[in-house]
Give the backbone structure.
Amino acid sequence: MEQPAVLVVGGGISGIQASLDLASRGFKVYVVEKSPSIGGRMAQLDKTFPTMDCSMCILAPKMIDCSHHPNVQLLTYSEVKEVKGSAGNFTVKILRKPRYVDETKCTGCGTCADNCPSEVPNEFDEGLGMRKAIYMPFPQAVPRAMTVDKDNCIECGLCEKVCEAEAVSLGQEPEEVELKVGAIIVAVGFDLFDPSQIPPYGYGRHKDVVTALELERLLCASGPTGGHLVRPSDGKIPKTIAFIQCVGSRDRRLGNAYCSSICCKYSVKDAVLIKEHVPDARVCIFYIDLRAFGRGFQEFVNRAKTEHGIRFIRSNPGEITYDPVSKDLSIWYEDTVTKKIDNLKFDLVVLCPALIPRNDAKDLAKVLGTEIDQYGFFRPSSNLSNPVDTTVSGIFACGYCLGPKTGDIPDSITQGSATASRAAEVIVGGT
Ligand SMILES: Cc1cc2nc3c(=O)[nH]c(=O)nc-3n(C[C@H](O)[C@H](O)[C@H](O)COP(=O)(O)OP(=O)(O)OC[C@H]3O[C@@H](n4cnc5c(N)ncnc54)[C@H](O)[C@@H]3O)c2cc1C
Ligand code: SF4
Ligand code: SF4
């Protein structure tokens, strides 16, 4: 008898790892990814701590392996709508949203986008660059196919006319697919807290107050500035840069009492990267207390101080003020070592926002029947004995959708492999 398949919901690094592990053991895997491409947040990063490897250089081969593996079927631009049944025997309804482009015909040549008159901010570049209404989210996207964003399409029909492969089909309809699977793995990752909810920081009012993910795109060679670190307001190279930690994390008033667990580490990484881009830059990190846990990370922080001259200020930043003449951003803060109120001027301020659950994680949990915790992350049935089992038998979770205990990419990969093992156990007759 044929073995039941496994459904992986979310095609970020943790979902990709789970899929590859299962596929290489001979299990059929369906990957349902909501956006037009797999890759998740890791695709948006420039380099990764602590090794400073190029993020896309590690991710892209895994994305390609996943799409080429004979046991993996990718269902991108798709969502889970209904789940029935129990461990070993789930029936799942998937909505395939219309891409308005035939994935099998599109060559990714880009002629359609070159001719499309409608231009909108590019979400992959966190709104710092532009894309067309017919677009590929990023150059290494998998599948390598365009998608029409109907909200911003003026229905001029040009893309359909110029496509020599006859791949564009503006009349495409949504499709429903029914799958039979034995186990389900949830790997839907995280969103970022919106820092404009803390008005004194001026995010959304001052162009040179950016988020860490925006900075990743500004540093990245494939980003909107071609990897040149410039400040968004006037394109000048910033010489004084500050990071503010815990923006929305560890803050009961905002409902996120937890530490997001990775911001201390990635801000040290980004501070070092900035020094590589602009060697004479003055970089300061304003932190409550530095949580650089994990093997080698304290040494990483020490090197940032001694070799790169990064300044760490233990503090409570209260407000960022803006001088329209000099364009300086002043951070007003209480130094929690000297107990003094002080201020420092910067060209660019980088906010490190809390990592929060995906905005539709609650709806997905409802469809799956699984519990979520008080913040909205998927709740494991036991943090100690079953850390990747959800509260429903046969449904597992990995990566950041389990909350901040799985902070970084290595953790997400480990958990992806753990869910693959648990799913395999269920399918071959375990529990
Ligand atoms: C600014 C910044 C810098 C970072 N730097 C580093 C670093 O240097 N090193 C490091 O180790 N880590 C770093 N990280 C952390 C890293 O990004 C995460 O560890 C990693 O992305 C987690 O992977 P994931 O698969 O759990 O989630 P994600 O990467 O979020 O992927 C989840 C996927 O699921 C999809 N999805 C969401 N909802 C649904 C749904 N309902 N149905 C179907 N699909 C869905 C999403 O579109 C996405 O493709 C950084 C994070 C940030 C914010
Ligand atoms: S839709 Fe057609 S024109 Fe556009 S990238 Fe694909 S093959 Fe090229
Ligand atoms: S139909 Fe829409 S996507 Fe195609 S070229 Fe016109 S505006 Fe762009």
Remarks:
- The pocket of iron/sulfur cluster (ligand 2) is lined by residues 101, 106-112, 146, 163, 165, 167-168 (CB under 6 Å).
- The domain at 194-354 is CATH 3.50.50.60 (FAD/NAD(P)-binding domain).
- The two ends are 19 Å apart (CA to CA).
- Residues 219 and 227 are 5 Å apart (CA to CA).
